[in-house]
Design brief:
The protein has 399 residues and is an alpha/beta fold. The chain has helices at residues 2-29, 39-46, 62-67, 88-105, 116-125, 144-152, 172-179, 193-205, 216-225, 249-258, 268-271, 275-285, 287-294, 300-310, 312-317, 322-336, 364-372, 377-395, and strands spanning 33-37, 72-78, 110-112, 128-135, 155-159, 208-210, 231-235, 261-264, 341-343. The protein is 51% helix and 11% strand. The chain is globular, with a radius of gyration of 21 Å.
């Protein structure tokens, strides 16, 4: 009986080992694309360098991209509403210069990707394909020549707005405040005539139109204007977590009709409908420290990050399970099919992600979760990167 028990224990252990190895190999052989990571701007602000081991400081660095099996990473070129005319475009160029310099210093690990041909080359070479996405139309400073300049420097999508509206496009944040009668910088919603010029010029260039962050009116105006499929680089499902940044079912259907792809954000506050209420209670328990941070005139996202660092155990307890992320993915697949969903983590732009997703090194857990939920390997390859590659081929520049 002892011998039999040992046999079965060994057999089960061997099966589980081979199963885990099989999942790992499948992830490594798949093309993994993440359409939104903020480590460039956050590292620049903190004086950090992604060439170093930044474990415990950031969600991302070069070594951990490799460990996570990420093949193509779109780095966000970002600055917030404190930057405007005369400063926003310069900041975008500064970040692009920084990223280009990092790529140039690491030719054995990184390769710049500007079109579909270069994307294929990066995958074949087993190097991290480095792409750029500009997060916020305020960085073109109402100037189409600046848009062209950013494209020429490698920007392959422009998020029409960040939380702050531009003079030509309204954000989800501002449209929501306008509807609620709260203070806002806008008096009307949607794209202006110049905003439509921006979208048309992006189509001509082969620069993807990114509809994360934009208001509903801007969203539909952009879809009416574009002649190419659009990207949603880092958003989730409003039906499961009703925050302004998430997409309603009608918006999801509209993206599918357009041929676009929605890339899921890993931020707990966009995934878990209970998260914001629980976070508010957590912050109220530490109101003294919170008020001290606010007194520094930091942006709200930095305040959230710093208060979480002060009380890491409590912040950890706020994180939802990874099943919540999978539920958002399931919702989109059931609604419009598997061809319209991908991954846009928002790592290093968020202060809380689901449990176990502590950084880019944990991306293989997404593949494991999809296998457990019964997705076919063909469909998983689409979710991990295939859908983006199809989108980029249709909406991006000619190779």
């Amino acid at each position: 009986m002892i011998t039999t028990a040992k046999y079965w224990i060994t057999a089960v252990f061997t099966f589980c080992t081979f199963h885990v190895i099989g999942q790992k190999n499948f992830h490594e052989k798949s093309i993994v694309v993440d359409t939104h990571n903020d480590v460039l701007s956050s590292a620049t602000l903190k004086g950090l360098n992604i060439e170093d081991d930044l474990s415990g400081k950031t969600h991302s660095d070069i070594a951990r991209f490799h460990k996570g099996g990420v093949d193509i990473q779109i780095f966000s070129i970002f600055c917030d509403e404190r930057f405007g005319k005369g400063t926003a475009f310069k900041m975008a160029l500064r970040e692009i210069d920084s990223l280009d310099a990092i790529v140039a210093r690491n030719p054995s690990k990184l390769i710049a990707v500007n079109n579909s041909r270069e994307l294929r080359e990066a995958v074949r070479a087993k190097k991290l394909g480095v792409m750029k996405g500009v997060e916020g139309g305020h960085m073109i400073e109402d100037n189409l020549q600046y848009l062209d300049s950013l494209f020429n420097r490698g920007a392959r999508y422009l998020t029409l707005t960040w939380n702050n509206s531009t003079s030509w496009a309204s954000s989800a944040w501002d449209e929501t405040n306008l509807d609620a009668g709260k203070p806002t910088t806008i008096t009307q919603k949607g794209l202006t005539d110049f905003g439509r010029q921006v979208v048309r010029r992006m189509n001509e260039l082969g620069m993807m139109v990114d509809l994360s962050h934009v208001g509903i009116r801007t969203f539909y105006d952009a879809l009416e204007t574009t002649t190419r499929p659009v990207i949603v680089s880092h958003s989730c499902v409003h039906a499961l977590c009703p925050v302004p940044r998430n997409l309603t079912d009608e918006q999801i259907k509209a993206i599918a009709r357009n041929g676009g792809v929605i890339h899921l954000n890993f931020y707990s506050g966009f995934l878990d409908s209970n998260y914001n209420r629980n976070k508010d209670a957590f912050q109220q328990r530490h109101k003294k420290q919170l008020d001290s941070l606010k007194a520094l005139n930091l942006p709200s996202y930095q305040v959230d990050e710093e208060i979480s660092k002060l009380f890491p155990v409590e912040a950890e307890e706020l994180r939802p399970s990874m099943n919540v992320l999978m539920e958002h993915l399931d919702h989109i697949v059931k609604l419009v099919g598997v061809d319209h969903v991908g991954l846009g983590s928002d790592f290093d732009g968020i202060d809380s992600a689901p449990q176990d997703l502590d950084g880019v090194e944990d991306m293989p857990l997404i593949t494991s979760a999809l296998l457990v939920r019964g997705y076919s390997k063909k469909d998983i390859r689409k979710i991990l990167g295939g859908n983006f590659i199809r989108l980029f081929r249709k909406a991006g520049p000619a190779s």
